[in-house]
Design goal:
CATH class: Mainly Alpha
Helix content: 55-70%
Strand order of the largest sheet: 1-3-2
Radius of gyration: 22 Å
Largest sheet: 3 strands, antiparallel
Structural class: alpha+beta
Order of helices and strands: HHEHEEHH
Length: 120
């Protein structure tokens, strides 16, 4: 859940979404998925689907479909929404990595001797 919140902060938060709205959206999203990584599309309302399309645009979700042949000869397509766990983790870690890089880049100045700093 924390990773989903951080990923949303690093995507939608940068576009102006408030932190409390991000937390509610994360809870809303995870209420569909729980401990699984996919949800059948038939379970969603049109409003839910709109939110899922927005999250797909942000790279947090993707879709897939399965085709099943019924006994009557008809083809039945089942659509699924899939959490992109690797992308969520990458987005969640983005701010941590930026902080580490900032710390690493400034650490080089600590290695420079006092003689170099005290040039005439």
């Amino acid at each position: 859940m924390d990773d989903v919140v951080m990923a949303l902060k690093n995507t939608l938060g940068k576009k102006g979404m408030a932190e409390n709205d991000i937390k509610r959206l994360a809870e809303y999203l995870m209420s569909f998925f729980g401990y699984t990584s996919e949800v059948i599309d038939n379970r969603l309302t049109s409003e839910d689907r709109d939110v899922f399309y927005m999250l797909e645009e942000e790279g947090l979700l993707t879709t897939t479909q399965e085709e099943v042949h019924l006994k009557k000869g008809k083809l039945w397509r089942i659509h699924y929404w899939i959490l992109k766990n690797d992308q969520i983790l990458r987005l969640a870690r983005q701010s941590e990595e930026a902080e580490k890089k900032g710390d690493e880049s400034s650490a080089i100045y600590d290695e420079i001797s006092e003689e170099v700093w005290n040039r005439d």
